[in-house]
Amino acid sequence: MPLNVISNFAANVAHRHLAMSDMEASNSVAKLSAGTRVLSAKDDAASLAIGSRLKAEVSALQQAQVNAGQAVSMLQIADGAMSRISDILVRMKSLSVQASSGQLSDTERGMLNQEFTALRSEIDRIADDTDFNSTKLLNGSNSFSAGTLGANIGQNDGIEQFAFSSNTGAFSATDSVTVAYNSTTDQFTVTNDVTGISYTSEAGLSAPTPGNFRDVVIQGAGLTIQLNSQFDDTTDISANNKFLVSGGTSSSLSLEFKVGTGVDASDSVTINLASAKTADLASGLDTATIDTQSNADAAIGQVSTAIDALAQNRALLGASQNRIEFASANIATTVENTESARSALLDLDVASEMSNFTSKQILVQAGVSMLAQANQLPQSLMKLFQ
């Protein structure tokens, strides 16, 4: 090879290798700082694609596990309320047996009946009041909705929707309902045209501000009127203001809990919570009394039926709890194994990469030294001019 001062081949070669070593060292630093061996698709496109799907699956499974935990909490609330109702029924049976005995007069039975009817009302109160995140658990469900709205009670008139609660007893399917508004008192009056019973909201309501809604609760009717900003609180509503009630009620509440990551039936668990109201536990129990011996005898059978029905409902509830707890345990195992598979694809072997980085770091240091030596070679040719 001729000696020259124009082209420094050795320096060029040293520089090229130094650049490669520096790039590889920098890549190692990036992997070590990120903790992953696949920084971009160019590192391992297949592992990145599979690992990304597994990461999404793990995230979804973790949320499914949260869903299962919340479902168990919900069922525990329902079971706790059922336990109290069971205690009440036991007391009611004792009162019934006491009142059916011949040594008591009707006056004494009337005293016992006061406690009996109070306890009966307490069962219905507990059933109506037991909820989780505003979902009533033990009073059944309904699918009531307002259909065939009158021309003056639509969304353009400021009435966004009519919402029925799960404990409404004021309406039945196909009932005609009249909705009136008095701008003087700022009150809504809702009348069931079939029964003739009217229900009135609190006075002094006003239209919501633009972009917002306002709920108007019709006390005793199990109905809420939601207003939008188009509602005019200075104008009466007295004509073209009827709607028909559609839907119906059910003595059980069906809840679907998502314990999987897909949309198949196997990804959800459906649980039915039976109503714990007296009318649903035993026929006639909601009106039963023990003020006479014959009524007390009848109440004994009704309370016994209710105790059996509640025990069966609690057994079904317990079975559902155990099922969801096993589902949660299975999700935990699946998350563990899926995360392990994702880790094998994407996570960095720190020890191996640290060894690789050390090697590249040595090469960078050697390259810098050799490049400096190569740049000194042309200087030796200057001695020929001396």
Automatic annotation (TrEMBL):
The keyword Magnesium does not apply. It holds the Pfam family Flagellin_N. Residues 301-385 form the Flagellin C-terminal domain. SUPFAM superfamilies: Phase 1 flagellin (SSF64518). The keyword Secreted applies. Residues 7-142 form the Flagellin N-terminal domain. It is found in: Secreted; Bacterial flagellum. GO terms for cellular component: bacterial-type flagellum; extracellular region. Keywords: Bacterial flagellum, Cell projection, Cilium, Flagellum, Secreted. GO terms for molecular function: structural molecule activity. Flagellin is the subunit protein which polymerizes to form the filaments of bacterial flagella. Belongs to the bacterial flagellin family. This is Flagellin. It comes from Tistlia consotensis USBA 355.
